[in-house]
């Protein structure tokens, strides 16, 4: 699962961004995968939702569910009524 993510980044399927590109403002929600923050993407001036995963406390089944969510989101993220997935960051 975490290896799938590393492979997807290495193969160019998912973009990876440096955490310093974002300034986090406040927590706006919490869910099964982690906490969502309102953040500013400095280089683009965009206000975004940044999801921080609780990988350490995640069970393998939960990580697999998140990977499935990412794969499904990539299939439909071009639709105007669905949030856009830009990539991942480590921080």
UniProtKB/TrEMBL annotation:
SUPFAM superfamilies membership: Protein kinase-like (PK-like)
Domain annotation Protein kinase: ranges: 22-91
GO molecular function annotation: ATP binding; MAP kinase kinase kinase activity
Alphabetical keyword list: ATP-binding, Kinase, Nucleotide-binding, Serine/threonine-protein kinase, Transferase
Binding residues for ATP: 51
Domain of life: Eukaryota
GO biological process: immune response; JNK cascade
Pfam families named among the record's database cross-references: Pkinase (PF00069)
Name of this chain's protein: Protein kinase domain-containing protein
């Amino acid at each position: 699962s975490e290896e799938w993510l590393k492979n997807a980044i290495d193969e160019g399927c998912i973009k990876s961004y440096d955490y310093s590109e974002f300034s986090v403002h406040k927590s706006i929600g919490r869910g099964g995968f982690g906490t969502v923050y309102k953040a500013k993407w400095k280089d683009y001036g965009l206000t975004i939702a940044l999801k921080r995963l609780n990988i350490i406390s995640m069970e393998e089944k939960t990580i697999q569910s998140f990977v499935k969510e990412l794969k499904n989101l990539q299939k439909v993220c071009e639709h105007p009524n669905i949030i856009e997935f830009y990539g991942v960051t480590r921080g």
